[in-house]
Amino acid sequence: MSFPPLLPTYARADVAFVRGEGAYLFDEEGRRYLDFGAGVAVNALGHANPHLIAALTEQAEKLWHTSNLYRVPGQEKLAQRLIETTFADTVFFTNSGVEAIEASIKTARRYHFANGAAERFRVVTFEGAFHGRTLAAIAAGGQKKYLEGFGPKVEGFDQVPFGDTRALAETVTDATAALLIEPIQGEGGLRPVPPEFLRHLRTLCDERGMLLIFDEIQTGIGRTGKLFAHEWAGVEPDIMAIAKGIGGGFPMGACLATAEAAKGMTTGTHGTTFGGNPLAMAVGNAVLDVVLAPGFLEHVQRVGNYATQQFSSLIADYPAVFEDLRGEGLMLGLKMRVPNTDFIDSLRARGMLAIAAGDNVVRLLPPLIIEEPQVREAMEKLSAAAQEFVARSSE
Ligand SMILES: *Cc1c(COP(=O)(O)O)cnc(C)c1O
User: Fold this and answer.
1) How far is the CA of 361 from the centre of ligand 1 (A)?
2) pLDDT in tens, 226-278
3) Following CA atoms 228, 230, 235, 238 in sequence, which dihedral angle do they give, to the nearest 10 degrees?
4) Distance in Å, CA 130 to ligand 1 centroid
5) Amino acid 10: pLDDT
6) With bands split at pLDDT 50, 70 and 90, how would you rate the model's confidence at 136?
7) Buried b (16+ CB within 10 A) or exposed e, 235-255
8) 344 CB under 6 A from ligand 1?
9) Which atom of ligand 1 lies nearest, measured to the CA of 215?
10) Per-residue pLDDT tens over the stretch 299-332
11) 96 lines ligand 1 (CB under 6 A)
């Protein structure tokens, strides 16, 4: 029996892109697509961004890799900038989101170990969460479809229903090290956590000596119109995992922490061969050049508000197709009354990309550099696809 050369863990769409430009992708046949997926919130500055190309090629001509056995100036620079713009005092660079989650969980556990409370290692998460695909991260995410068949669930994760204050109070014990939450659930269906719930988590952590970990892998780096989504709620974590947008398409992530929370992570406790490599750091710094430039986040807010206003009108126009619009900034989701994946297929056939999420949601995650005309173009494609579904159902 022949097995596919690529492990078939993805149900890939039959399209291959060969080139990109801003918010557009081009396939092998030269067809153009409006990219409202951005590689799952990764291409924050769009495709083939000249500033990122320059940063990467300039670094590529100098040095690719040296390892973390030596100082990496790009890491020092990027860490300093992340520290200046966030709650954090220290940063560990990774290659991916899930490694940033692993580092966050390890940091939280070591904090209690350093405090002489090694028995305090449990982490509480929330239903609908997604934190990545390592054995620990699927245990943290708690979703049966990702855990099934992979042996015993990694010990030390407890889950409570989304937003359930009472269940949380009952689940937290003296063995709880940390609470881990996405300020807006991404894969789970664009579910924003109410700001008052985030504030409640902060208070609870302070009262019980627990650490608060935010997973801002999808929500971070300007996606919601603030540098980080938790800024909307005015609540700061002790530890935060980031990835996706910070690399603009170059694989990288980071775990940020306060000095207090990171106190257990002493020499030799953690490591990575590739994390924080000079190429990644050059791109990460270049992404921040753009995202931190005056007016950029305001641009995301303005276009995000316009998109919200436009896409909201779809619900009134096609009530049989759309149920509601969720999200913040340019992290938006349409809750569907028709199957989300069918709708996404129809959009793709019309030259627009969007991404499915849980709870039958179509995620709209365009590059943050889009302007109003791209929102109008998306409106046309969304309306045309919706009309097709209305016509289908009346056949
Ligand atoms: C994508 C994502 C992850 C996992 O990141 P990888 O780079 O795929 O490992 C974790 N948490 C959230 C919220 C994500 O969106």
Assistant:
1) 18
2) 999 999 999 999 999 999 999 999 999 999 999 999 999 999 999 999 999 99
3) -70
4) 7
5) 95
6) very high
7) bbbbbbbbbbbbbbbbbbbbb
8) no
9) 13
10) 999 999 999 999 999 999 999 999 999 999 999 9
11) yes
Ligand 1 midpoint to CA 133 (Å): 8
**How confident is the model at residue 394, as a pLDDT?**
80
> 158 CB under 6 A from ligand 1?
no
Instruction: Give the class (CATH, top level) of 51-291.
Output: alpha beta
C-alpha of residue 61 to centroid of ligand 1, in Å: 30
Residue 53, CA distances (Å) to 21, 32, 58, 65, 300 in order: 12, 21, 8, 18, 22
Verify whether ligand 1 is closer than 6 Å to residue 35 (CB atom). no
Q: Is the CB of 184 under 6 A from ligand 1?
A: no
Q: What is the pLDDT of residues 119-133, one digit of tens each?
A: 999 999 999 999 999
Q: Which CATH architecture has domain 294-337+347-365+377-387?
A: Alpha-Beta Complex (3.90)
Q: What does the alpha-carbon distance between residue 19 and residue 105 come to, in Å, rounded to a whole number?
A: 37
Q: Identify which of 214, 230, 244, 363 to mutate to test ligand 1's pocket (most ligand atoms within 8 A of the CB).
A: 244
Sheet with strand 322-328: strands edge to edge: 322-328, 331-336, 361-364, 355-357
Q: What percent of the chain has pLDDT over 70?
A: 100
In this prediction, residue 377 has a pLDDT band, given cuts at 50, 70 and 90, of: very high
pLDDT of residue 81: 98
Tell me the C-alpha distance between 11 and 257, whole Å.
36
Is 227 touching ligand 1 by the criterion CB < 6 Å?
no
- CB-ligand 1 contact for 141 (6 Å cutoff): no
Residue 364, φ and ψ in degrees, nearest 5: -115, 105
Q: How high does pLDDT run on average in the chain?
A: 97
Same fold, 51-291 and 294-337+347-365+377-387: no
| DSSP-derived 3-state class of residue 335 | strand
Cα 98 to ligand 1 centre (Å): 6
Q: What is the pLDDT of residue 1?
A: 64
On whether the pTM is more than 0.90, the answer is yes
- The domains of the chain are located at 51-291, 294-337+347-365+377-387
